[in-house]
Amino acid sequence: MTTTTVHLLRHGEVHNPGGILYGRLPGFRLSENGRHQAELVAKALTDADLGAVVASPMQRAQETAAPIADAHGLEVGTDDGLIEAANRFEGERVAVGDGALRVPRHWPKLRDPFTPSWGEPYLRIAHRMLGAVHRARELAPGREVLCVSHQLPIWTVRRFVTGQRLWHDPRKRQCGLASLTSFVFADGELTQIRYSEPAGASDPRRTGA
């Protein structure tokens, strides 16, 4: 039996003094704390049998992947399937009771929370993420592979493979900054999901992840 583990790592904290939902906007780098979180994950994975490191094309994901790949003598690959979800509120402040959500012209975007109407459909996110997971699994059969992605995509594919409805309360996501959601496969079949926070706990309500 061949056992392969694909670790889905949420990137570290981002420098975002404006407090906006940055989504796929370019130029958002890790904060000093985010770089520290990436180093903590690299240390936690010192003994991991990593055969490949792949990341979303977003700068924050690439920067989170770098120290882990370096520690294992690997290059960081890029898979667009790991990218952040598209969101029509990019560039806006979207805290409840504040910013864009109080502007009437934005209200039509909120008409359907189940798809959702304000961004990339959950099912599309789940399918592209699952594809990225299986591509990663095939990079190093019998070993471990690290994929750096974002909070909503990671949480969505986790709910998909466990048979849960995809629409959810974002305040209850188990996917902290620099956390690991690990999919364990035996001969290509998903047998286990593990979750850990090697860089410590963080608030799941943080936006723009």
Provide structural commentary.
- This protein is an alpha/beta fold and 209 residues long.
- The protein has one domain: Phosphoglycerate mutase-like (Rossmann fold).
- Helices cover 26% and strands 18% of the residues.
- It contains 4 helices and 6 strands.
- Strands 3-2-4-1-5-6 form a 6-stranded mixed β-sheet, sandwiched between helices.
- The longest helix has 18 residues.
- The radius of gyration is 17 Å and the shape is globular.
Summarize it.
The chain has 209 residues and is α/β, with parallel strands linked by helices. It contains four helices and six strands; from the N terminus they run βαβαβαβαββ.
One letter per element, helices H and strands E, the order comes to: EHEHEHEHEE
Number of discrete helical segments = 4
> Roughly how many Å apart are the termini?
36 Å
Question: Helical percent range?
Answer: 25-40%
Shape: globular
Rg over C-alpha atoms, rounded to the nearest angstrom: 17 Å
Q: Could you tell me the CATH topology label.
A: Rossmann fold
Give the CATH H-level superfamily.
Phosphoglycerate mutase-like
As laid out across the biggest beta sheet, the strand order is: 3-2-4-1-5-6
Q: Structural class, from secondary structure content?
A: alpha/beta
CATH architecture annotation name? 3-Layer(aba) Sandwich
Oligomer: single chain
DSSP summary, beta strand count: 6
**Could you say how many structural domains there are in total?**
1
Any idea of the CATH class? Answer: Alpha Beta
Unreliable runs: none
Beta fraction of the residues? 15-25%
The whole-number mean of residue pLDDT values reads 92
Largest sheet, in brief, is: 6 strands, mixed
